[in-house]
Amino acid sequence: MEAVNIRIGPLTFDHADYDADGDVLYLHIGEPQPGEGEETPEGHLVRFAPGTQRIIGLTVISARHPLSRDGRLIVTVPETVEASADDLTPALHFA
Fold first, then answer.
1. How far is Cα 53 from Cα 46, in angstroms, rounded to an integer?
2. What value does the mean pLDDT take over residues 38-53?
3. C-beta of residue 81 within 8 angstroms of C-beta of residue 12
4. How does residue 94 score in pLDDT terms, banded at 50, 70 and 90?
């Protein structure tokens, strides 16, 4: 788990783990912790602190695909926000 500073819309994630084989990016606010998940319309997973609407994590499925195709990631958390490829570079280790 790497310490990062990834901003997506109003959220700032400070921990990231990237599974290059599965192309899955795990972003966390604070240390990873158990949470309740909700799928976004885009097919990602937003994680909330149990019993709250406080976002504690985001799992981005096929993280590189929209970045290489569109140059950005769009995700609904619950409002629709986006992050550029440059915003996510520290977590994905782009060259």
1. 10
2. 93
3. no
4. very low
3-state SS, one letter per residue, for 22-33: CCEEEEECCCCC
- Whether 45 and 59 have beta carbons less than 8 Å apart is answered as yes
Residue partners of 12: CB distance under 8 A and separation at least 6: 5, 6, 29
Q: How many CB atoms lie within 10 A of CB 32?
A: 15
30/14 Cα distance (integer angstroms): 6
Q: Which amino acid is at 72?
A: R
Handedness of CA 61, 7, 30, 15 (dihedral sign): positive
Nearest to 46 by CA among 58, 61, 29: 58
The whole model's pTM is what?
Answer: 0.80
* Burial zone of 50 (CB within 10 Å; 0-12 exposed, 13-18 middle, 19+ buried): exposed
Mean of per-residue pLDDT scores for the chain = 88
